[in-house]
Amino acid sequence: MIKLVLTDMDDTLIPAGHDGVSDYAIEGIHAMQAAGLHFGPVSGRQPSAMGWMFKNRSECFSTGAFCNGQVMFVDGEVVASRAIDNDALMRLADYLEQETDDTFLKVYSLGDDFWGNDAYCVTSDPERVCRAMESGGNAWLKGEEAPCRPVVDDATVFKANIWSARSREELAELRERVAAEVPEISLVFPNNRVRLFDILPAGWDKGCAALELARAMGMTPDEVAVFGDSDNDLPMIDAVPNSVAVANANEVVTAAARWHIGAAADDAVAGALHQIAACAATGEMPSFMRQVDAAGLGATNV
Fold first, then answer.
1. Assigned CATH topology for domain 4-81+205-289
2. What is the pLDDT of residue 284?
3. CA-CA distance, 264 to 248, in Å (whole number)?
4. Residue 217: how many CB atoms within 10 A of its CB?
C-alpha cells in the first residue's frame, strides 16, 4: 500500500508554462490526506517557491524535500539538511570565471528558517550574466536575475546553481571537467529544458532525501511512490520500488521507472494522486501500478 507520495514539481506535477498546480491536483492531495496518507514535493526549488506553486495551500508542502533534497520537512518541521561546502563553491566560481565567458555561479540565501529568497551571482563580470540570461534556453527565466558579488559569503548554502548560454551538450562536457576540479560537489540538470545545473554536495541527491523522509515518517521504501521526469529525479526513481515516470520524462528516467503514466500537460500525476487516495480504504495498489503493457512497462492509464 502506498502511504507517501513524493513528486517532482516542474514538468511533472506542474506542466511547462503553468503558474502552479491545478485545482484537481490540490483536490488529489487533500483526498490523500483525508485518507490518512501523506504527500510531499521533492523539488530543486527552494521552500519559498512552494507558496505560489501550491496557491499558498501550506498543507500541500508542509512535508517535502527542497533544494534537490538538501532541506527536508515533515509536518512543517525541519528533519534534516545537507549544506554545500562554501570553499568548493568559491573554487567552482573561480573555475567558471577562468574557463568560460558565458557561465556563472548563482547562490541562494535561504536564511536561518530556510524560507528566504535572496540570491546573488558570484562573478566580477556582469556581462556574462546577461549572456547567460538572454540565451534561448534561459530567456524565459529573465526575471530571476540577481546582483553580482565577487565571492561566496560565509552564510551556509543549501541551494546554488550554474547558469550558462551554452548548449546542453556543451554543459554535459563542462560537468565532466568540473567533477575533476571540484569533486566535493555534483551537478544535475533540474529539468529537460533549461541551460543550467543544480549543485549538490557529492553523495547527496533526491534519492537520499526520499529515503530519509520515509525513515523519519516510519515508512519502508515500498510504501513510497515517487514521480519524476528529469536527471535530478533519477536517484529518487532508483531509490524506491514504486517509481513513476510521466510521459514527457527523458529517456533515462523513462527506462529506469517501474511504472509509467500520462504527461504532465494532461495532469497525469494529479490523476494518480486521486487513484492512490481511493485505494487507501482497501489497502490495494492503484490500477496504474497493477498493469503491465506488452513492452513490460507500467500502463499509462492516468
1. Rossmann fold (3.40.50)
2. 94
3. 7
4. 17
Segment 272-290 shows an average pLDDT of 96
Q: Where do runs of H (alpha helix) occur along 199-287?
A: 206-216, 234-239, 251-256, 268-279
Specify the 3-state DSSP secondary structure of 298: strand
Q: How far apart are CA 146 and CA 226, in angstroms?
A: 33
Residue with cell 520515509: 214
Q: Average model confidence (pLDDT) for the chain?
A: 93
Which one is the CATH code of 86-201: 3.30.110.70, 3.40.50.150, 3.30.1240.10, 3.60.150.10? 3.30.1240.10
Exposed/middle/buried for residue 55 (C-beta within 10 Å: 0-12, 13-18, 19+): middle
Q: How confident is the model at residue 35 (pLDDT cuts 50, 70, 90)?
A: very high
At residue 182, the 3 state secondary structure works out as coil
Task: Show the DSSP H helices in the chain as ranges.
Answer: 23-34, 50-53, 86-99, 126-133, 168-181, 206-216, 234-239, 251-256, 268-279
Biggest CA-to-CA distance, the chain? 60
Residue (of 58, 1, 52, 49) closest to 29 by Cα position: 58
pLDDT in tens, 80-103: 999 999 999 999 999 999 999 999
Distance CA 175, CA 170 (A): 9
CB atoms within 10 A of CB 25: 24
If you average pLDDT over residues 98-112, what whole number do you get? 95
Which of the 8 DSSP states describes residue 187? E
The pLDDT, as a whole number, for residue 140 is: 57
User: Would residue 292 be called left, alpha or beta, if left means φ above 0 and alpha means ψ between -120 and 50 degrees?
Assistant: beta
pLDDT at 296: 47
- Tell me the backbone φ, ψ of residue 196, rounded to 5 degrees: -155, 160
